[in-house]
């Protein structure tokens, strides 16, 4: 299948293309030089007056796995109100707004022009489940990050100072369960939660069962991450998330990783939830300026926003004690807690963000302040931490807020007045250009994930994942609603060289790849020694056999290993 | 004489499990399950000896069973294994939960001179189905004479119950399983007996009798039934892989029919309870490693999950809790089951009053005054005692079974017990875990959730998933005669549904896909034999705590027999063509 996309305004930051009118060629799932294609054989898409970008890349969205599925179970009411009808042969059916089913996830991302999405938290023991859901999500390429911050093997090695062995274990784990990067959630908290403790755990508090602190877990895993040459930095949900005053913990966490090496050493995820000033909820203020100042002055940090969207959400996180606390704060009296032996815990609580709530309004401001005050769009990624801050389907609105002060002001007028007074957002004039949107939603996340050779760009040889929006950058950008409409229903989405969305509608159901990492950096003898140690402990610690824990490549629909080192 | 008024409780037994796995059309199955356990006192009152027939009568019907003496003492309560016999007296109303009441039923017992019917007689008398099962199923597959040699498969996952024990060793010689190690009695029976009583040929009913046909013909016949139906029911799914489940969901979507799994007749109320208030869960290893208090509530692992105690709960060796001595064990049940004997504290709750007991416990946990001397037959002091045991545990776990889900109140009872556990988390760590029966019923719920948003009872009439347990569940749809065709995969509803629902199932065009010619197959229009998932076919299954494991293929299926997955793929293709989509 050959496609030529003709005459569109192309935004391709990795190749420095800033809205020039260019043709893009597609052949056999890859981007090719259009001049080498024969127009008579190729499908020609007229993109004149339209915007052409690489397919969107979401670095953090809870789309699959045990907690996502319990979220669905917990919220039938979320499924009654939103559905996609099946058209046999074209598309499958689905339901759900904040906890969408696999088809609704794949199709809605594709309709927005997003083609690669990361599930950022999976307990290793239940990752077979995560992969089975990922297998069933149509269209998208995806990957998942295993939770590693409370894993007994890892805590044990770190407490003994055996970083090399820890690295060997992590390399084995990533390969065994087909994971992509290391996820830390309120580092160390799940271990404490299994004893009913852990709320408010701070960077230098001790985790008694292992005699180590979250700081040691974070720095230890950062070293491991670099030793293994993993494509993405450690992906950290900081300690004290969702607790007023936590911005200082976030700053300390970033400081803890200074001097760990070149490039990005830590990704702070959904930073909005970790940028709170004030001693209690009524006194909540934004810590975004301080966080942004730090990020602007230091090269080793990237963040994603975790923007709050007013309306319904389903909070779900491995930060189990936080969810238990939230259960007491919300009028929707539902709480699903879960714990996984040796590894992790989680909690789920349905939530609603309200404009008139001072806390929610401050939260809304903080997310945008972070994105607007951090100068480098390569290091701040728009997310809603779907479905924690709100569903990913609200990205078009989020983009309009970034691109238009007018759009922000429309919301600011309606939110809690005290919150507005406390915020610096009304004074921020910055508006993202379309090029900056292309950076922060495509090029940057692809680069942070180490996938920039094939994702987030339109250079020759890259994967042919392309979004075409009915948006004329020469005249449509002053109208925020026009921006929202364009991003909500892409004119055309091409995934792996196939047209999957046309005129905002699903045209074809395909199934994408799952990326995972095989690190062969370490010495084989070391690996062997560690695996045999793990085998010994396994029987004592787990209720499944060692061999059954390992996920075979054949269990993944389209496996795509990234081999690091070796 | 005056009838003996009793409360009837039905449920699983080890023998029912073993014999059911070996084939339900055998005389031995009837011998083990067409029975009712009476307390010695009650036998005396009736003036009969053990082994004599008795007539059980409820509002819904009457049936003759063989009386046997109960092992525990529970005068006034009679227990019958779940079976096609006892279902004759079970009602089909579900109180909007989709779940019939299989427990706590008011009944009368009479001595009788009638004899217990054979399965053939039972099917004829109550469902008008005539079968001569011997012709169809009596064969035992000849062992392969090939040169397969000997192979030991280790870490095999047992495809019987929700425990999914994954340490089983299976010895295969010349293509046949000759030895099974580490599995429980039922699991072993399933592996060792998989070659027995197999139906090897697709069958289509022609002029009232079954005719052996080719696979293609059977698929064609089945696809026609489905394609021509206006509203079909696809039911079963908990004893097959999630891969087969996913295809079943796709087929339901294409047909615009209903797909329901056996959750609706076991833990349906549990799902509804979670929908209402949430849950507090942990993997079995977390419980094994940490729980110093284990509560079995309306669940009987000694009969239904034989290795549960050793591997995961009371008797298991955990990292922080070395064994039974360091754990407190509480058993709550309507009768003194063998489980009660191993408990530190046994609480006998009046049948059908679990809700009341839970409410009282929640009050006691919060130190509120209970203004009664006893609740649900339990003295208030004992309730306070239990509350204290619960609050002072370091890590508590409740394993609850269908004894709770079938209790009146259904999902309300479940919401209440989940709330109790949520309340307890204000004091300490507490979790609960449903004792799921079929090996992949948890997987059926999971795949259904990620594809439809709902765990069971899903309708596709409008081409997108809708869910309401009060409408789109097997018992409701069948007893209200709402569906005009049914496909049953890896389940035996005619053996396990209340009479009215079962009866209506026999009246509509019925397709059965199963490794065995089971009771339901007797009423089928098309029967397609399939391979055993986890023995002859790989796939994924989910343990009761949601941990998923890969089932292995250790031997080839009988020649010509294909898997559920392959059968469903063929059906999907054919139905699409017939419907022109």
Task: Summarize the structure in words.
The complex is a heterodimer of chains A (566) and B (581). With 566 residues, chain A is an alpha/beta fold. Chain A has 19 helices and 26 strands. In chain A, helix 5 runs antiparallel to helix 6, helix 13 packs across helix 14 and helix 13 runs antiparallel to helix 17. The radius of gyration of chain A is 22 Å and the shape is globular. Chain A starts with a strand and ends with a strand. The mean pLDDT of chain A is 97. In chain B, 64% of the residues are buried. Chain B is globular. The interface between A and B is large, with 65 and 64 residues.
Estimated structural class of chain A = alpha/beta
Shape of chain B: globular
Measured distance between first and last alpha carbons of chain B: 65 Å
The radius of gyration computed from the alpha-carbon positions of chain B, rounded to a whole number of angstroms, is 23 Å
Largest sheet of chain B: 9 strands, mixed
Gap between N and C termini of chain A? 35 Å
Which helices and strands occur, and which strands form pairs?
The complex is a heterodimer of chains A (566) and B (581).
Chain A: E1 2-12, E2 17-27, E3 30-32, E4 43-46, E5 51-54, E6 56-58, H1 66-74, H2 76-80, E7 83-84, E8 94-95, H3 102-111, E9 114-122, H4 127-136, E10 141-146, H5 152-159, H6 163-177, E11 183-185, H7 189-193, H8 214-227, E12 234-237, H9 247-256, E13 266-268, E14 276-277, E15 285-286, H10 288-297, E16 301-304, E17 311-317, H11 320-329, E18 335-340, E19 344-353, H12 358-373, E20 380-381, H13 395-403, H14 405-412, H15 417-422, H16 434-448, E21 466-469, H17 480-488, E22 492-495, E23 498-502, E24 505-506, E25 514-519, H18 524-541, H19 546-549, E26 559-564
Chain B: E1 4-11, H1 14-22, H2 27-33, E2 35-38, H3 40-46, E3 53-58, E4 61-69, E5 77-81, E6 103-111, H4 119-127, H5 133-137, E7 150-156, E8 168-173, E9 176-181, H6 185-192, E10 203-206, E11 209-212, H7 215-228, E12 232-236, H8 242-255, E13 258-261, H9 268-277, E14 278-280, H10 284-290, E15 293-297, H11 301-304, H12 308-311, E16 328-333, H13 338-341, E17 345-348, H14 354-365, E18 374-375, E19 378-379, H15 380-392, E20 395-400, H16 402-405, H17 411-424, E21 429-434, H18 441-452, E22 458-459, E23 466-467, H19 474-479, E24 485-489, H20 493-496, H21 499-505, E25 510-514, E26 526-529, E27 539-542, E28 548-551, H22 564-579
Parallel strand pairs in B: 1-5, 2-4, 12-13, 12-24, 15-16, 15-20, 16-17, 20-21, 24-25, 25-26
Antiparallel strand pairs in B: 1-6, 3-4, 3-6, 7-8, 8-9, 10-11, 10-26, 13-22, 18-19, 22-23, 27-28
Helix pairs in contact in B: 1-2, 1-6, 7-22, 8-18, 8-22, 9-17, 14-15, 14-17
């Amino acid at each position: 299948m050959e496609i030529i996309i003709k005459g569109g305004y192309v935004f391709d930051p990795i190749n420095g293309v800033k809205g020039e009118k260019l043709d893009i060629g597609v052949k056999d799932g890859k981007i090719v030089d259009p001049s080498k294609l024969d127009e008579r054989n190729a499908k020609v898409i007229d993109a004149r007056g339209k915007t052409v970008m690489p397919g969107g890349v979401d670095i953090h969205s809870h789309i699959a796995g045990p907690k996502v599925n319990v979220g669905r179970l917990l919220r039938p009411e979320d499924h009654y109100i939103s559905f996609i009808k099946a058209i046999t042969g074209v598309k499958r059916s689905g339901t759900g707004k904040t906890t969408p089913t696999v088809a609704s996830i794949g199709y809605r991302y594709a309709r927005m022009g997003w083609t690669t999405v990361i599930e950022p938290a999976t307990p290793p023991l239940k990752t077979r489940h995560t992969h089975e859901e990922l297998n069933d999500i149509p269209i998208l390429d995806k990957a998942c990050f295993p939770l590693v911050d409370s894993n007994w093997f890892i805590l044990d090695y770190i407490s003994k100072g055996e970083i090399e062995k820890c690295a060997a274990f992590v390399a084995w784990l990533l390969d065994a369960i087909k994971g992509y990067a290391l996820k830390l959630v309120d580092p160390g908290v799940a271990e404490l939660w299994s004893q009913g403790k852990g709320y408010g755990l701070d960077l230098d508090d001790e985790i008694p069962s292992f005699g180590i602190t979250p700081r040691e877990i974070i720095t230890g895993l950062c070293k491991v991450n670099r030793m293994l040459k993993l494509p993405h930095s450690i992906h950290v949900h900081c300690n004290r998330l969702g607790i007023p005053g936590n911005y200082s913990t976030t700053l300390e966490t970033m400081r803890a990783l200074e001097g760990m090496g070149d490039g990005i050493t830590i990704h702070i995820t959904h930073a909005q939830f970790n940028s709170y000033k004030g001693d209690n909820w009524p006194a909540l203020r934004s810590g975004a300026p301080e966080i942004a100042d730090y990020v602007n002055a230091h090269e080793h940090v990237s963040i994603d926003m975790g923007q709050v969207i007013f309306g319904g959400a389903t909070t779900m996180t491995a930060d189990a004690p936080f969810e238990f606390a939230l259960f007491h704060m919300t009028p929707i009296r539902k709480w699903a807690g879960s714990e996984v032996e040796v590894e992790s815990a989680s909690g789920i609580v349905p939530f609603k963000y309200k404009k008139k709530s001072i806390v929610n309004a401050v939260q809304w401001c903080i997310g945008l302040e972070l994105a607007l005050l951090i100068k480098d769009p390569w290091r701040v990624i728009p997310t809603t931490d779907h479905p924690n801050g709100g569903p990913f389907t609200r990205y078009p609105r989020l983009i309009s807020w970034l691109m238009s002060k007018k759009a922000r002001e429309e919301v600011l007028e309606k939110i809690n007045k005290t919150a507005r007074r406390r915020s610096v957002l009304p004074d921020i004039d910055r508006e993202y250009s379309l090029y900056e949107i292309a950076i922060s939603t495509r090029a940057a996340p692809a680069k942070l994930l180490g996938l920039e050779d094939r994702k987030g760009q339109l250079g020759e040889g890259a994967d042919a994942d392309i979004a075409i929006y009915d948006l004329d950058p020469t005249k449509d950008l002053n109208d925020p609603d026009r921006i929202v409409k364009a991003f909500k229903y892409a004119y055309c989405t091409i995934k792996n060289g196939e047209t999957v969305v046309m005129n905002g509608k699903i045209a074809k159901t395909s199934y994408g790849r799952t990326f995972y990492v095989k690190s062969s950096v370490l010495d084989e003898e070391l690996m062997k020694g560690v695996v045999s140690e793990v085998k010994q402990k396994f029987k004592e610690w787990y209720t499944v056999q060692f061999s059954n824990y390992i996920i075979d490549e054949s269990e993944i629909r389209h496996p795509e290993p990234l081999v690091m080192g070796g | 004489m005056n009838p003996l008024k009793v409360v009837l409780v039905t449920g699983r037994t080890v023998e029912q499990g073993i014999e059911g796995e070996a084939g339900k059309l055998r005389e031995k199955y009837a011998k083990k399950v067409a029975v009712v356990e009476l307390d010695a006192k009650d036998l005396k009152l009736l003036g009969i000896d053990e082994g004599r027939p008795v007539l059980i009568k409820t509002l819904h019907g009457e049936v003759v069973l063989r009386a046997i003496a109960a092992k525990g003492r529970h005068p006034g309560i009679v227990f019958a294994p779940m079976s096609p016999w006892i279902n004759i007296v079970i009602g089909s109303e579900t109180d909007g939960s989709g779940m019939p009441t299989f427990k706590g039923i008011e009944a009368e017992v009479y001595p009788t001179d009638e004899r217990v019917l054979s399965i053939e007689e039972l099917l004829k008398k109550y469902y008008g189905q005539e079968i001569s099962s011997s012709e169809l199923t009596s064969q035992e597959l000849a062992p392969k004479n090939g040169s397969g040699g000997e192979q030991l498969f280790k870490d095999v996952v047992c495809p019987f119950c929700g425990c999914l024990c994954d340490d089983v060793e299976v010895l295969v010689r010349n293509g046949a399983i000759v030895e099974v190690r580490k599995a429980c009695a039922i699991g072993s029976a399933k592996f060792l007996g998989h070659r027995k009583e197999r139906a090897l040929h697709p069958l289509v009913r022609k002029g009232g009798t079954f005719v052996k046909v080719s696979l293609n013909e059977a698929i064609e016949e089945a696809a026609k039934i489905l394609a021509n139906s206006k509203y079909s029911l696809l039911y079963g799914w908990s004893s097959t892989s999630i891969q087969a489940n996913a295809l079943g969901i796709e087929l339901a979507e294409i047909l615009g029919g209903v797909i329901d799994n056996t959750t609706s007749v076991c833990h349906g109320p549990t799902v509804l309870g979670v929908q209402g208030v949430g849950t507090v869960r942990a993997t079995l290893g977390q419980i094994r490693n940490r729980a110093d208090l284990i509560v079995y509530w309306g669940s009987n692992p000694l009969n239904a999950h034989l290795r549960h105690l050793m591997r995961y709960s009371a008797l298991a060796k955990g990292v922080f809790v070395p064994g039974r001595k360091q754990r407190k064990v509480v058993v709550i049940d309507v009768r003194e089951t063998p489980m009660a004997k191993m408990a530190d504290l046994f609480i006998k709750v009046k049948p059908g009053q679990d809700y009341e007991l839970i409410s009282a416990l929640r009050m006691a946990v919060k130190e509120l005054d209970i203004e009664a001397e006893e609740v649900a037959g339990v003295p208030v002091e004992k309730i306070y005692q239990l509350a204290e045991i619960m609050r002072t545990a370091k890590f508590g776990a409740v394993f609850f079974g269908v004894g709770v889900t079938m209790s009146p109140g259904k999902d309300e009872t479940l919401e209440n017990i989940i709330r109790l556990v949520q309340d307890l988390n204000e004091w300490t760590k507490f979790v609960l875990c449903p004792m799921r029966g079929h090996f992949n019923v948890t997987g059926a719920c999971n795949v259904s959730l990620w594809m439809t948003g709902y765990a069971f009872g899903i309708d596709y009439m409008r081409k997108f998933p809708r869910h309401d347990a009060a409408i789109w569940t097997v018992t409701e749809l069948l007893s209200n005669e709402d569906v005009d065709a049914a496909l049953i995969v890896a389940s035996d509803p005619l053996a396990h549904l209340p009479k009215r629902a079962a009866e209506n199932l026999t009246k509509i065009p019925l397709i059965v896909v199963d490794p065995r010619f089971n009771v339901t197959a007797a009423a089928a229009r098309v029967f397609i034999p399939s391979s055993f998932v986890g023995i002859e076919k790989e796939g994924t299954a989910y343990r009761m705590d949601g941990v998923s494991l890969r089932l292995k293929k250790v031997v080839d299926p009988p020649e010509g027999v294909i898997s559920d997955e392959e059968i469903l793929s063929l059906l999907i293709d054919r139905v699409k063509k017939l419907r022109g989509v």
